[in-house]
Specification:
The structure holds 2 protein chains of 2 kinds. Chain A is mostly helical. Chain A has helices spanning 11-14, 19-25, 29-52, 59-84, 86-92, 95-106, 114-144, 166-186, 194-198, 208-211, and strands at residues 146-147, 150-151. In chain A, 67% of the residues lie in helices and 2% in strands. A two-stranded antiparallel ribbon of chain A has the order 1-2. By secondary structure, chain B is an alpha+beta fold. The longest helix of chain B is centred in the first third of the chain and has 49 residues, at 3-51. Chain B contains 7 helices and 14 strands. In chain B, a hairpin with a 5-residue loop joins β6 and β7. In chain B, 31% of the residues lie in helices and 21% in strands. The chains are: A mainly alpha, B alpha+beta. Chain A binds chain B through residues 49, 53, 56-58, 60-61, 64-65, 68-69, 72, 75-76, 79-80, 82-84, 86, and chain B through 6-7, 9-14, 17-18, 20-21, 24-25, 28-29, 32, 35-36, 39, 43.
């Protein structure tokens, strides 16, 4: 897989997936980083266990296992956050639990070595953090005239309050997705179909065009 | 591995994953459960520790989510939690009120000791657009007893500061009702001050605060202080005759009532000199709106209509004038009302009712005050006014007075219309209107 273009083929930005955590956790940069970090951890752990059990599981069972693992690890993480980081937990609210389903998008169900799965999970998780942080930065800076809770005084008279609401969150996400898509189109990285986007981490050699 | 074995292995793997997570989550819940409960309790107590840092701990006495589990009774709806501070510093009460300007919850924390004195107060959440001084205003309550006699409202933010005061009153009420704090007897002056908006609603805004015309001051032999209603609805005078304290209210037509601190009408029993002094002061200071009122009401009636002023005895609302309007064989009744609108400025509204009490016409000076502020309101004036025609006390619901985007004006119009219907009914009961 060509990691350089992985962001440009990220299913979150191409298929507009994972909108729920983006909507819920990006009113504040710190909350976005917390959500991204949590999802990265869940992704990595789920990926490791799934790889360890891949020989036991049939292709169909891998999907069920992926869901069980994602939901299980998210529940454990949520319980631990609730107990030891209640402030962060209250910022993320129900969106951490909802994100368990989103993690499934990135889990590979193909038979691949543990190292490959781990690498892909880390890359996907890091991109998730980048996208969440980017959306949160736009929303918080222009919507609330602050960054990570710190006030930006010269912007306080130019707030765009709608960015702090659900519609603003979607708008910010859409803008970032549009920018990435524009860059992708400019670099002439074509996808045969949305299936390519969804399976970019699962495929071993990237798209057919990229191969050639 | 053949297909059958693979399927069996998959099932075992899935069951194993499930079983492991069940075990982990059960164990985790056993370990983190008490920690989470402690965190939740700490979150509930955080506002109390913020205003009373020296507190050693709090024991829960009342939780609004579990009222049956508490021994306390008669808890006002604004009270959310009541705690007893463990080292004897008093009782912490957390309240939530929606009586503020935006009707969004204002969260308040207050600590009251067993002697019935406020030892700490603070605001934990304040959604209103106008700042009443959330960091400083609560501090004015520290040292106050249950009468809150020395606490004043914040000028220009009367709704929210009044909501705060009422909430603290509720905290006292909850503790006093359950014998946890001592009640201080209110002074006669304070009782009379609280009586004023009850006996003269027209002088007070929607928050129940009497609005005084700026710069009006008065004193006399018996008059200690006075309020000239900002909307021209009349006067209130606080009187002292020897050891006795009284409240005198005079409406725009000069009709007088005198009350004692217990709320009893003592008009006929007080010294005549008192009533003379009060009526003289009111007559000398009352603004005259007669010319404008008659002009507006005549315009709503037929050409050449004759207006005869009616007495407003016993009417202490926003209605400032009533007239019998005779045009040929037709007799109708005109009313002028001056309810408080945005920022305690008053509207001037005029209604004509037929002999059955149904509205036949409506007019106004200005429905929307400070139009540059209310840029989002939607109002077709002619349709709006026509919408009142035919309405009676039974059919008026308030919805007919609604102006989209101008809630305060809508509420003012509703108040005026209700007051006019009530005034009509009073005049009919007293025989002034046949």
């Amino acid at each position: 897989m060509n990691e350089k273009n992985a962001l440009l083929k990220d299913p979150m930005l191409l298929l507009l997936l994972c909108a729920c955590p983006i909507l819920g956790a990006t009113t504040n940069v710190l909350a976005a980083l917390a959500m991204g970090g949590a999802l990265l951890l869940v992704l990595v752990l789920s990926s490791v266990i799934l790889s360890a059990l891949q020989n036991m599981l049939s292709r169909q069972a891998k999907l069920a296992a992926a869901l069980l693992l994602a939901a299980g690890f998210t529940s454990v993480l949520q319980q631990l956050m609730h107990a030891f980081q209640p402030d962060v937990s209250s910022k993320l609210g129900i969106y951490l639990a909802v994100a368990a389903v989103d993690v499934m998008v990135f889990l590979s169900t193909d038979s691949r070595p543990l190292g490959d799965n781990l690498k892909n999970s880390v890359i996907a998780g890091l991109f998730l953090i980048v996208v969440l942080a980017a959306v949160a930065a736009v929303r918080e800076v222009f919507g609330n005239a602050s960054f990570a809770g710190m006030e930006i005084s010269f912007l306080s008279g130019y707030k765009v309050p709608i960015l702090m609401q659900a519609s603003g969150g979607f708008a910010a996400f859409a803008v970032i997705a549009a920018v990435i898509n524009a860059i992708r189109a400019k670099k002439d990285i074509c996808l045969l179909s949305y299936a390519d986007a969804a399976g970019f981490l699962a495929s071993e050699n990237g798209t057919k065009e990229e191969k050639s | 591995m053949n297909q059958k074995n693979h399927a069996a292995a998959s099932a075992v793997a899935l069951l194993l994953i499930f079983a492991v997570f069940v075990g982990v989550l059960v164990g985790l819940n056993t370990y983190t459960g008490p920690i989470i409960t402690e965190n939740e309790n700490a979150a509930k107590l955080a506002p109390l520790y913020e205003i009373l840092p020296e507190a050693q701990g709090f024991t829960s006495l009342y939780d609004y989510e579990l009222p049956a589990a508490s021994d306390l009774l008669d808890i006002p709806s604004t009270v959310r939690y009541i705690y007893e501070e463990t080292s004897g510093l008093g009782y912490g009460v957390r309240l939530s009120t929606t009586e503020g300007y935006t009707h969004d919850p204002i969260e308040i924390a207050v600590v009251i000791d067993a002697e019935g004195t406020v030892t700490a107060a603070g605001v934990t959440s304040y959604p209103d657009t106008r700042d009443m001084g959330v960091d400083t205003y609560p501090l004015t309550y520290v040292g106050q007893n249950s009468t809150l006699a020395d606490v004043s409202l914040v000028a220009g933010v009367t709704f929210s500061s009044s909501a705060f005061k009422n909430a603290v009153n509720d905290a006292f009420a909850a503790l006093i009702a359950n014998g946890l704090a001592k009640e201080t007897v209110k002074s006669p002056e304070q009782l009379l001050g609280e009586l004023l908006p009850v006996v003269f609603p027209g002088i007070a805004n929607k928050a129940g605060v009497a609005q005084n015309e700026e710069g009006y001051e008065v004193s006399g032999t018996y008059i200690q202080s006075g309020i000239k209603a900002l909307n021209g609805s009349g006067f209130a005078f606080f009187l002292k005759d020897g050891e006795e304290n009284y409240l005198a209210v005079v409406n725009a037509q000069g009709c007088l009532r005198v009350y004692d601190p217990q709320g009893e009408d003592v008009t006929d029993s007080v010294d005549a000199a008192i009533t003379e002094e009060v009526l003289a002061e009111a007559a000398a200071s009352q603004d005259d709106f007669t010319k404008k009122q008659t002009k507006r009401l005549t315009k709503l009636s037929a050409e050449g209509a004759e207006l005869e002023a009616l007495p407003l005895d016993g009417i202490y609302s926003t209605v400032v004038a009533a007239y019998r309007i005779t045009a040929g064989d037709t007799v109708t009744y005109g009313f002028a009302a001056r309810p408080y609108g945005y920022s305690n400025m008053n509207l001037a509204l005029y209604y004509v009712l037929d002999e059955t009490g149904a509205i036949t016409a409506m007019n106004d000076d200005d429905l929307i005050l400070i139009q540059e502020y209310f840029s989002d309101y939607v109002l077709d004036e002619s349709s709006y006014k026509a919408g009142f025609q035919g309405l009676t006390a039974d059919t008026f619901t308030g919805e007919q007075a609604l102006i989209s985007g101008a809630t305060v004006s809508s509420e003012a119009v509703t108040t005026a219309v209700n007051d006019i219907f009530e005034a009509f009914a009073t005049l009919k009961d007293t025989g002034v209107i046949a």
